[in-house]
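Researcher: Let's do a round of design. I'm pasting the structure tokens now; please hold your answer until I've finished.
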């Protein structure tokens, strides 16, 4: 068994729980991954861009907190998140391991009526990915690196967050590439737009009350 981490260091910035009806964002850093300010800064930048996009598309948007990103030092090393089975296949291992630790440490629900929760972990492993749904977005290391600006053009990561937040708000994937961010058209960000049915579904869905 991998030993537990030492006491969290000064990179942790978690304060009291933020206001409810906001989008709460976390970067989980396995304890053997060096702290890199580009990660929380980059994730915050991506969240602000998604916030702007939802305002553009819906006429109202979700609220972020200050700080935007809560930095959480993981209980385990990177290899543990990547190689401990959790879920039907390796695609989910890192993100499910992260999500369960966040739920346990921070008293979160899945779903949670208080917040929409967005978690990114600096761990990946072969074939790792992530997703969104039921008020959550859970993403692995390539997204954290992308948000930090070290894994290709930023529009890929802006569009990806818009897409996954759509799932968190209750939208399904589109059945074909239809110009909306719920399809592969999110790769064309910012040249993608919600259709009227999607806009209505977000406004009237379970988390529509988070928009103002």
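Researcher: That's everything. Go ahead.
Model: Designed sequence:
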């Amino acid at each position: 068994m991998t030993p537990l981490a030492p006491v969290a260091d000064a990179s942790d910035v978690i304060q009291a729980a933020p206001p409810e009806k906001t989008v709460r964002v976390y970067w989980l850093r396995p304890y053997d991954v060096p702290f890199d300010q580009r990660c929380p800064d980059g994730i915050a930048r991506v969240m602000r861009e998604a916030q702007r996009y939802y305002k553009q598309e819906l006429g109202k948007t979700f609220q972020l907190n200050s700080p935007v990103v809560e930095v959480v030092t993981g209980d385990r090393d990177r290899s543990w998140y990547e190689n401990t089975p959790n879920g039907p296949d390796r695609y989910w291992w890192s993100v499910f391991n992260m999500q369960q630790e966040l739920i346990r440490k921070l008293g979160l629900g899945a779903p949670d009526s208080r917040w929409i929760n967005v978690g990114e972990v600096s761990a990946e492993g072969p074939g790792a990915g992530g997703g969104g749904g039921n008020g959550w977005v859970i993403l692995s290391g390539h997204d954290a690196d992308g948000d930090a600006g070290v894994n290709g053009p930023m529009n890929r990561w802006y569009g990806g967050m818009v897409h996954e937040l759509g799932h968190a708000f209750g939208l399904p994937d589109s059945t074909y590439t239809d110009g909306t961010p719920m399809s592969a058209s999110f790769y064309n960000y910012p040249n993608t737009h919600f259709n009227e049915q999607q806009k209505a579904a977000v406004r009237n869905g379970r988390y529509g009350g988070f928009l103002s």
